[in-house]
Specification:
- The chain is mostly beta strands.
- It is built from 6 helices and 28 strands.
- It has helices at 8-16, 20-25, 31-36, 40-53, 56-63, 91-99, and strands at residues 109-115, 121-127, 131-136, 141-145, 150-155, 162-169, 181-188, 193-197, 207-209, 216-222, 225-230, 235-239, 245-249, 256-262, 266-271, 275-280, 285-291, 307-313, 316-321, 326-331, 337-342, 355-361, 364-369, 373-378, 392-395, 401-408, 413-419, 423-429.
- Strands 1-28-27-26 form a 4-stranded antiparallel sheet, with no helix packed on it. The chain has a 4-stranded antiparallel sheet with strand order 2-3-4-5, with no helix packed on it. A 4-stranded antiparallel sheet has the order 6-7-8-9, with no helix packed on it.
- A hairpin with a 4-residue loop joins strand 26 (401-408) and strand 27.
- Helix 4 (40-53) runs parallel beside helix 6.
- It is globular.
- The two termini are 28 Å apart.
């Protein structure tokens, strides 16, 4: 019997049982099978593959979804049990993002340089397939076309260096669209937090939030909530519709260097003396806190101050410190804490002494260093031994790398860096299609 003559019921059963790579290759069987892949019923097979193969927290990150209701690996074989939720999400594209972050050093690549900032660049972010947003010591925020290197807009409302930016995703819009973000939130040495319209950029901010009495080191945003961390030893949570401060976490013991948001409720803050806290925005209370200490040898003792980066995924925080390496803090539902200390290894480096910034996306983590190199690590499963071998090393700078961001522009993995030389560099890889 010719494959094109198989009953649809049998084809259904065949496709349901294929792994993701075989599912992608099944398009090449014949024209009739290729046409099946364009039907909504068969597109849901990619949703099944995502839930089966991708860890839940990673899936939330890649989709930009606030909630993932189903547990990976526990989906029913019945297509009727897969509800058509988040219909704007291209599940095949999500699986591709996760899959093609592997072995990036083997694929063709290109580097694009963006020049325009006067002085060091302090933060960088991707927005969709062709936009990059940056901020720097010159007090400006710049929006770039990342392919042509053209600076689309310069936002210059801050009175001092802009240290951090965060982009708000448009509700219900897939991350695969050209411009998936509508707002930029920025924090500056001028002690203010500003909100900018990204779709209609203007030199005047749409909103300015005052309250901090020292420089704002880091900002984060999700939906209508923004959070800011400051050298005044506090974290403030803002309603970016009204500009009102709805929560203040004060007297945190030291400068607060980083703040991160996860889903719609969990806030992570990290102080310079490595005090970590998870805080519930909804209930206005501290969920858990921890003072990181050196886990080598007998017992715990205080670390040398100096936090260089932090990311939050689910209830696990990854924190890069100046002299004691990389820590993963896992906060268990029963209130217990698990802390892992990783010693980073890189060519011609003295462990993590040169680590300056940290980013994580999908299966990749990147660390920018004081020497100008960027170390890229591929993470799968238990992170315990993942940082002992560098997946890829980028040598784009001769000056310290102050900021790094990972993403996937729809063609393949991409990484953007900013450093002391004022140049923004974009690295893109072009893997084969699956």
């Amino acid at each position: 019997m010719n494959l094109t003559e198989l009953p649809l019921e049998l084809i259904d059963e065949i496709l349901k049982r294929l792994d993701a790579i075989s599912l992608a290759k099944s398009r090449q069987v014949c024209r009739s099978w290729l046409s099946l892949h364009s039907q909504p019923k068969y597109k849901l097979l990619w949703r099944r593959a995502c839930f089966r193969d991708i860890p839940g927290d990673v899936l939330i990150e890649l989709t930009g979804s606030g909630y993932i209701d189903e547990t990976p690996g526990r989906l029913s074989d019945s297509a009727e049990n897969i509800q058509v939720e988040n219909s704007s999400i291209d599940w095949k594209a999500i699986y591709q993002k996760w899959f093609r972050s592997r072995h990036i050093r083997k694929w063709p690549s290109m580097i694009t340089g963006l020049k325009g900032h006067r002085g060091p660049v302090w933060d960088v972010k991707f927005s969709g397939a062709d936009r990059v947003v940056t901020c720097g010591d010159d007090g400006t925020i710049r929006i770039w076309d990342s392919w042509s290197s053209h600076c689309i807009a310069v936002l210059s409302g801050h009175l001092d260096a802009v240290l951090s930016i965060s982009l708000r995703q448009i509700t219900g819009i897939s991350l695969n669209t050209d411009i998936p973000h509508d707002l930029i939130v920025s924090g500056s040495k001028d002690c203010s937090v500003k909100v900018w319209n990204m779709k209609k950029p203007n030199t005047t901010a749409a909103l300015t939030c005052h309250g901090h009495t020292a420089c704002v080191n880091c900002v984060a945003v999700i939906e209508n909530i923004a959070a800011s961390a400051s050298d005044d030893c506090s974290v403030r949570v803002w309603d970016i519709v009204t500009g009102h401060c709805i929560h203040t976490l004060c007297n945190l013991g030291d400068w607060v260097k980083y703040v991160r948001l996860w889903q719609h409720d969990t806030l992570l803050y990290v102080t310079d003396n490595t005090q970590l806290g998870l805080w519930s925005i909804k209930h206005g209370e501290l969920l858990s806190s921890l003072k990181l200490a050196d886990t080598r040898g007998q017992g715990y003792f205080p670390m040398t101050p100096g936090v260089q980066g932090a990311v939050l995924r689910g209830k696990t925080a990854l924190v890069l410190t100046h002299s004691k390496g990389l820590f993963a803090w896992e906060n268990k539902s029963d209130g217990s804490n698990i802390v892992h200390n990783f010693s980073l290894i890189g060519p011609h480096s003295n462990s993590v002494q040169r680590g300056e910034c940290l980013a994580m996306h999908g299966a990749l983590a990147a660390i920018g260093t004081r020497s100008g190199a960027v170390y890229v690590y591929h993470l799968e499963g238990n992170w315990e031994n993942q940082f002992t071998k560098v997946h890829h090393v980028l040598h784009g700078y001769h000056d310290p790398v102050n900021a790094v961001c990972l993403d996937d522009d729809g063609e393949g993995p991409s990484l953007v860096t900013g450093g002391d030389d004022g140049i923004v560099r974009i690295y893109r890889w072009f893997p084969p299609s699956i």
